[in-house]
Inverse folding.
């Protein structure tokens, strides 16, 4: 079964160093998933193409446009995410945050994620751990330990370039391990899958959840 | 098919003149809209309920009683009554009293409200929104259906030996709709009691509306109230009309572009394509509205929003005139022509509920419980 990896990239220029980093991460994740005997399908969401739709969604009382709806479904149905943003004014870009803001709060429960960012100078690198990581933790995603930060100089050769390649490979390996891992009961340790605490269900929020709680149960909980 | 208008009661500046009506003018305008609705042959006027500016309708039964005194056949309703933050005892008494004044021309639509601070202002917790709606409405049904109520719950002080007065007109409580845009629990609630479900779709795409309505229909059947296509459904709509589409768009565009909720966001064209908003000729409105039944099945009540975004009252009255004279007669005929015989044309009215008699399941607090109990007896 192919593992679906969705890349969210928030670069604005074309070509952008953010997309460049996103592509290198995607290639590395593909390689690492293949090395574990599975194939990976990569799908890229260029947030620049959604910029107007995101603004429209926010000013239309939260009703998502068709493109936003498709992007939300894509994200929630993924097996793993690669999220890459440029650093703007000491944080992730506004465009990146707008996309995160239109996701359902249950959209990426338990989702393996690699966080990555680009900037003109390495002085911004703590954005990964002070802004990106808490954002994904709030959404109950599983962020791999290695975050990938690339300053402009890291795209050159020498020490910086080599170190970036290493970080990409390490993050990709960490993500691949989570993406191919099977979850569920291990024979002999739990009598049945029911004994495990099930994780919160993931949902994109675009479709109405028709699996409703019976009304007698709701009344019963209130003693009525 | 019942067709009418519903008003949010917002006090909004007219963007073309810069003038904002006073609260008094806005209340007067809402009254004139209701009277116009009766004059041109519409069936329903429904008022919103809000407890914060820029909205005026904080006392719906006061207003509806005033309108009832000046009308003969108009059904007076709400859109919505705040079941979360209003004491169910007040709702039971206020609306039973209104029934007596209005000769039964009353129904109401329950909603949870969408203004966060209203909950703490009324001593409630917004995180308990759904449980509040569940408990309060169940108590409301008991207050209307049991002469003496002994009750204890989670959110209100207990009642022992309590009788809500006056008793509902002809011992027949007003018909209730439940309005919700996204909460499946509310569709489930409407289905459980066999009440109506109203989806205020004016800011939503039809695919979403259809999912909510279909859920309600499926559960209505599950609880034994009839077939899914016999469930009682209402929808919203938003229109602006002129002799040509170009003229309608020219006049309405500044109001659209500056409207609360969606102003300065999507274009009129984008919004028209996705939501029920129709800006054009009466024929376009007829075609669009008939299309709703294709999307969600034959339904029983259609309410149009005609008076928001700062539109001057003269323009609104003219719009309701066009609606009543050119649109509604055709809609009635066409909806009737497409409706299968077993699907009700109208939602229950006071007269139809009284005609069902005192033994009707309508008088049970929880008809689904009786159905389930009867099924259990048959099996054993």
């Amino acid at each position: 079964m192919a593992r679906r990896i969705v890349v969210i990239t928030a670069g604005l220029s074309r070509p952008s160093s953010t997309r460049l980093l996103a592509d290198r991460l995607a290639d590395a994740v593909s390689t690492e998933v293949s090395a574990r005997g599975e194939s990976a399908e990569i799908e890229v969401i260029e947030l620049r193409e959604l910029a107007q739709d995101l603004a429209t969604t926010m000013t239309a009382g939260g009703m998502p446009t068709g493109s936003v709806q498709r992007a939300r479904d894509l994200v929630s149905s993924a097996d793993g995410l690669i999220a890459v943003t440029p650093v703007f004014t000491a944080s992730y870009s506004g465009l990146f945050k707008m996309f995160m803001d239109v996701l359902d709060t249950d959209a990426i429960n338990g989702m393996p994620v690699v966080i990555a960012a680009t900037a003109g100078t390495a002085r911004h690198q703590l954005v990964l751990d002070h802004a990106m990581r808490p954002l994904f933790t709030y959404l109950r995603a599983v962020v791999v330990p290695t975050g990938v930060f690339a300053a402009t100089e890291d795209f050159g050769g020498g020490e910086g370039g080599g170190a970036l390649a290493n970080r990409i490979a390490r993050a990709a390996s960490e993500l691949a391990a989570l993406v191919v891992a099977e979850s569920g009961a291990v024979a002999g340790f739990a009598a049945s899958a029911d004994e495990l605490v099930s994780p919160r269900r993931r949902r994109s929020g675009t479709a109405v959840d028709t699996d409703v709680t019976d009304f007698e149960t709701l009344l019963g909980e209130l003693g009525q | 098919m019942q067709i009418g208008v519903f008003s949010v009661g917002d006090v909004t500046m007219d963007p073309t003149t810069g003038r904002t009506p006073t609260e008094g003018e806005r209340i007067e305008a809402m009254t004139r809209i209701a009277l116009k609705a009766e004059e041109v042959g519409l069936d329903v006027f429904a008022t919103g309920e809000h407890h914060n500016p820029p909205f005026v309708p904080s006392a719906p039964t006061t207003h509806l009683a005033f309108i009832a005194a000046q009308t003969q056949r108009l059904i007076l309703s709400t859109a919505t009554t705040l079941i979360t933050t209003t004491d169910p005892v007040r709702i039971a008494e206020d609306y039973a009293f209104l029934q007596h004044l209005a000769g039964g021309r009353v129904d109401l639509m329950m909603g949870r409200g969408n203004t966060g601070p209203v909950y703490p202002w009324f001593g409630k917790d917004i995180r308990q929104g759904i449980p509040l709606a569940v408990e309060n409405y169940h108590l409301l049904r008991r207050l209307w259906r049991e002469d003496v109520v002994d009750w204890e719950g989670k959110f209100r002080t207990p009642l022992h030996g309590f009788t809500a007065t006056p008793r509902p007109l002809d011992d027949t409580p007003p018909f209730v709709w439940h309005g919700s845009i996204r909460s499946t629990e509310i569709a489930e609630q409407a289905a459980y009691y066999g009440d109506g479900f109203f989806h205020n779709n004016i800011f939503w795409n039809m695919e979403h509306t259809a999912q909510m309505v279909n859920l309600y229909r499926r559960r209505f059947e599950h609880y034994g109230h009839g077939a899914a296509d016999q469930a009682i459904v209402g929808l919203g709509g938003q229109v602006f009309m002129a002799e040509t589409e170009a003229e309608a768009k020219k006049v309405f565009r500044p109001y659209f572009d500056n409207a609360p909720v969606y102003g300065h966001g999507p274009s009129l064209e984008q919004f028209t394509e996705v939501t029920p908003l129709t800006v054009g000729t009466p024929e376009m409105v007829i075609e669009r509205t008939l299309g709703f039944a294709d999307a969600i099945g034959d339904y029983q009540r259609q309410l149009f929003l005609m008076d928001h975004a700062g539109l001057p009252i003269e323009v609104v009255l003219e719009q309701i005139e066009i609606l009543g004279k050119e649109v509604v007669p055709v809609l009635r005929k066409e909806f009737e022509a497409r409706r299968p015989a077993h699907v009700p044309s109208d939602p229950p009215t006071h007269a139809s509920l009284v005609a069902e008699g005192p033994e009707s399941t309508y008088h049970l607090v929880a008809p689904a419980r009786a159905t389930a109990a009867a099924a259990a007896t048959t099996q054993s």
Remarks:
- The longest strand of chain A covers residues 80-88.
